[in-house]
Amino acid sequence: ILNVEQSPQSLHVQEGDSTNFTCSFPSSNFYALHWYRWETAKSPEALFVMTLNGDEKKKGRISATLNTKEGYSYLYIKGSQPEDSATYLCAWPNFGNEKLTFGTGTRLTIIP
Amino acid sequence: KAGVTQTPRYLIKTRGQQVTLSCSPISGHRSVSWYQQTPGQGLQFLFEYFSETQRNKGNFPGRFSGRQFSNSRSEMNVSTLELGDSALYLCASSLAESSSGRRGTQYFGPGTRLTVL
């Protein structure tokens, strides 16, 4: 993998259900992995910065894990709520850990 | 602390014109990055400035340029506008010059929606 890839591209989840999606990134020369949430008509908002293999971060009902050896991160949302509807982006610094390369995102829609 | 601000929020131009967009970072942030977002595309990196120096540039033609001032405010200029330049332009600021840790977290402005007719 030369770039950041996210799957699935879009997801519809029933309110109350839990869900997760994936970010894959180059596993060599790892520096950090960023997760952002981008709600419609708003600016992207930082969720997590993950730096260590095995890292697990949590913010309310949202959590993320990191596997730097195999080059992936999972984002989990427990008990989805309508306000979780957004595009979730992951980003990986390259070019000597300065520039952030963003994935195309997972567009999550919560169905009430 | 005030967030990242961008002006103008909306802009309509015609082909061949040029445009300047402005970004004011969060106070104390010295790194400013610019991104373009078009329908179906992710955030495409344009360039990044730190302490008035352009440190990285994305794969965009030379019509796209930028600069940063001593107060960390940044401007982006697009000359000879084309229809394909219609997009949302986002600017983001961060504390650190490196994106390898929490201090590299980027804080985004609301964006400038540019429409080229």
Protein described:
The complex is a heterodimer of chains A (112) and B (117). Chain A is mainly β and 112 residues long. Chain A is 0% helix and 54% strand. Chain A has strands at residues 5-7, 10-14, 19-24, 33-38, 45-50, 56-59, 62-67, 72-77, 86-94, 99-102, 106-111. In chain A, the strands form 2 sheets. In chain A, strands 2, 4, 5, 9, 10 and 11 form a 6-stranded mixed beta sheet that branches. Chain A has a 5-stranded antiparallel beta sheet with strand order 1-3-8-7-6, with no helix packed on it. In chain A, β6 (56-59) and β7 (62-67) form a beta hairpin. Chain A is globular, with a radius of gyration of 13 Å. The model of chain A has no long low-confidence stretch (mean pLDDT 91). Chain B has 117 residues and is mostly beta strands. In chain B, the strands form 2 sheets. In chain B, strands 2, 4, 5, 6, 9, 10 and 11 form a 7-stranded mixed beta sheet that branches. A 4-stranded antiparallel beta sheet of chain B has the order 1-3-8-7, with no helix packed on it. The radius of gyration of chain B is 14 Å and the shape is globular. The mean pLDDT of chain B is 91. The A-B interface holds A 31-32, 34, 36, 42-46, 49, 51, 89, 91, 93, 95, 97-105 and B 3-4, 33, 35, 41-43, 45, 48, 55-56, 58, 90, 92, 97-102, 104-111.
